[in-house]
Amino acid sequence: MPSARFPSRPSRRVPSARPLLPRRGRSARFPSRLPRAGLRWKISAAIAVVSALVALALSLVVHNAARVSMINSTRDVQDERVQSALRIYETTGRLVFYARIDDPDLPKELKAYAAKGQRATYVDDSGGSPTVWAETPAADGRVLSLKTGFTDRYSVLVDLDQALVAGSLAVVLGGTAIGVLIGGRMSRRLGKAAVAARKVADGDTEVRVREAIGGRRVRDETDELARAVDAMADALQLRLEAERRVTADIAHELRTPVTGLVTAAELLPPGRPSELVRDRVHALRTLVEDVLEVARLDGAAEQADLQEVALGEFVRRRVRVLAPDATVTVAEEAVVPTDPRRLERILGNLLANAARHGGGAVEVVVDGPYLRVRDHGPGFPADLLREGPLRFRTGSAARSGGGHGLGLTIATGQARVLGARLTFRNAPEEDGGGAVAQLLLPR
């Protein structure tokens, strides 16, 4: 009698696990705003998504492999049992293992194999848990069959699924935590690099991005970026230093002939032409001195000689000499550590700028460590408010005058030496308009 232990098993069906996914037409809801938009959370989200996909794929593979293995093992056991039941039946005539003869519920697939004289097994998974059948033809032409439920091993599979779910959640949470740590470290390094780069942009030549992020300890793309930024900062510093030296050398070389021109102009006979020559020569001398001062301030070698100064009283005395027509208001007196000579230079340049380029009354206000100089003219040009004062640029035509654009540049440089902050803005039109320069001194 032919015996096909496991023929092609045409009706064997092993259902696959179905993950819990949103139905078509629905979308998973996520918060409209993440707690913090940044590289850390993007990396964490990416790692979490990848971890979830990997865990889901592995869980499906393990679930299906375990299910197939368990069913195959059960089919092997059922096949051995049906052979044992056949031997006992043919020997003693008794049915064991709950075997049945010509079971009317025998699946038609097994009936077809029995008609061919073949032994076969079959798995029926149309219900909740699979049922494993086995049949074998008997010597008397009848068919002996066994039926066993998969309940016990199915419960093991359920436990396995629960363990896979717990493991997947642990993998996702662990991956997210690692992503937060890695992303946080990278985000902190990039944040330090940004802070250091801003300091370099503000003129701090001693700051290096690679040192700020600890690049000597960690070698990665961030370190390469820091190297590139530092190299660019070094190149810019060398170029600016070369330009400063050229400017200082030119101004220094002009100083001697200009001094000779001043002396010669003083020897000219009285008259209108002589006054014009002396006026232009003095203007040229002032320009050369201003250029030299700008070059010194750009060199970052200037040091302030700090003294305790009563700001309100100091401003009253200096304004009385520098701009007698300006009004002084002391809202709050303050004693600040500053360099009187440099502070007077800043105040004089702000007053001169207001008188030359502004219009109307000039107001000086002292409010604690704040010193404000305001005119009632057309206000500062937009490019000055956007980029700050630039040398040899006097502003718009409405604020043009006889200057060379160095007054506010020198004032800004002197404020930097004092550790103060000089800002520029325009007063609103409903408040009378005009340009407002504000100096904040350290206390």
Describe this structure in words.
The chain is of the alpha+beta class and 443 residues long. It has helices spanning 39-92, 108-115, 151-201, 209-212, 221-266, 272-298, 311-322, 340-357, 382-387, 407-418; strands at residues 100-101, 120-124, 131-137, 143-149, 307-310, 327-332, 335-338, 363-367, 370-374, 421-426, 435-440. Helix 1 packs antiparallel against helix 3, helix 7 (311-322) packs across helix 8 (340-357) and helix 8 packs antiparallel against helix 10. It folds into 3 domains: 39-178, no CATH class; 227-298, Orthogonal Bundle (Helix Hairpins); 307-440, Heat Shock Protein 90 (2-Layer Sandwich), CATH 3.30.565. The termini are far apart. It is built from 10 helices and 11 strands.
Protein traits:
443 residues, alpha+beta, Helix Hairpins, Heat Shock Protein 90, 3 domains, 5-stranded mixed β-sheet, 11 strands, rod-shaped
- Total count of helical runs of at least 4 residues: 10
User: In sequence order, what are the helices and strands, one letter per element?
Assistant: HEHEEEHHHHEHEEHEEHHEE
What fraction of the residues are assigned to beta strands by DSSP?
A: 5-15%
Distance between the termini: 109 Å
Chain-averaged pLDDT: 78
Query: How would you write the strand order of the largest sheet?
Result: 6-8-9-11-10
Give the number of DSSP strands.
Answer: 11
Domains counted in the coordinates: how many?
A: 3
Transmembrane segments: 163-182
Keywords: Kinase, Membrane, Phosphoprotein, Transferase, Transmembrane, Transmembrane helix, Two-component regulatory system
Region (Disordered): 1-27
Biased composition (Low complexity): 1-20
